Amino acid sequence: MRARLLEATVEVLLERGFANTTTTLVSERAGVSRGAQLHHFPTKNELVVAAVAHVMERRAEDLRAAVAELQGAPTRKVIRMLGDYFASPGFKAALELWVAARTDPELLATVGPFERHLGRETHLLTVELLGADESQPGVRELIQATLDLCRGLGLADTLSDDTRRRARILDEWAKVVDRQLTGLQRQAEGTQDSHSRPVGAEEAR
Fold first, then answer.
1. What's the CA angle centered on 36, arms 33 and 37, to 5 degrees?
2. Where are the domains of the chain?
3. What is the pLDDT of residues 33-45, one digit of tens each?
4. Nearest 5 degrees, angle CA 136-CA 138-CA 142?
5. What backbone phi and psi angles, to 5 degrees, belong to 162?
6. Over 70: is that where the pLDDT of 177 sits?
7. Disulfide check for 108: which of 21, 101, 120, 186 has CB 3.0–4.6 Å away?
8. Contact in structure between 87 and 154 (CB atoms under 8 Å)
9. pLDDT band at residue 109 under the 50/70/90 scheme
């Protein structure tokens, strides 16, 4: 029953937006009595937050599974996967919640920590997928720029199907990421070689 309520909430949220989502509509969609719905989720905010958390956690599980499947995959494939992640129904449902939380302190107090946790996990998984070394200057910002780009393209997809344009943009961005990470790796290897060269090696040449 709880799962039905959560799924129904996301469906109504995507169709009608946060302002027009009501617990009555959700219970009708889920085929659950109002009493049963109120037993699990006494308020609309509790219901919506739980529903979005449910969907985004499921998406996070998909992202974690992708780490195993995409190990060693080309950067282009990894970044396209991230683009799809941020264009998913779960992300669009979360957007509705974020907009509402901007002017609702009670909702923001719940959504804020959840979003920060999910953001940190997504960042760490992206670092792992790209094989990036955040101890190198600029790498953390590059990863964050990648995620911000994917979020922005996900936002654009809420108004119309942006799949083809998103793919072109992400493919070009993947080339930028590849060049940056490869250049930094070569720079680090060069520095390591210079440090490991025996003292006096230059004079011996």
1. 85
2. 57-195
3. 988 888 899 998 8
4. 120
5. -110, 20
6. yes
7. 101
8. yes
9. confident
The model carries a pTM of 0.79
Between the CA of residue 194 and those of 134, 181, 200, what are the distances in Å? 21, 20, 12
Q: CB neighbours of 52 closer than 8 A, spacing ≥ 6?
A: 10, 13, 90, 93, 94, 97
The torsion region of residue 94 among left (phi > 0), alpha (psi -120 to 50) and beta comes to alpha
User: What one-letter code names the amino acid at 5?
Assistant: L
Is the CB of residue 15 less than 8 Å from the CB of residue 96? Answer: no
Structure tokens at 71: 């190990």
Three-state secondary structure of the chain? CHHHHHHHHHHHHHHHCCCCCCHHHHHHHHCCCHHHHHHHCCCHHHHHHHHHHHHHHHHHHHHHHHHHHCCCCCHHHHHHHHHHHCCCHHHHHHHHHHHHHCCCHHHHHHHHHHHHHHHHHHHHHHHHHHCCCCCCCCHHHHHHHHHHHHHHHHHHCCCCCCHHHHHHHHHHHHHHHHHHHHHHHHHHHHHHHHHHCCCCHHHHC
Provide, rounded to the nearest whole percent, the portion of the chain with pLDDT above 90: 41
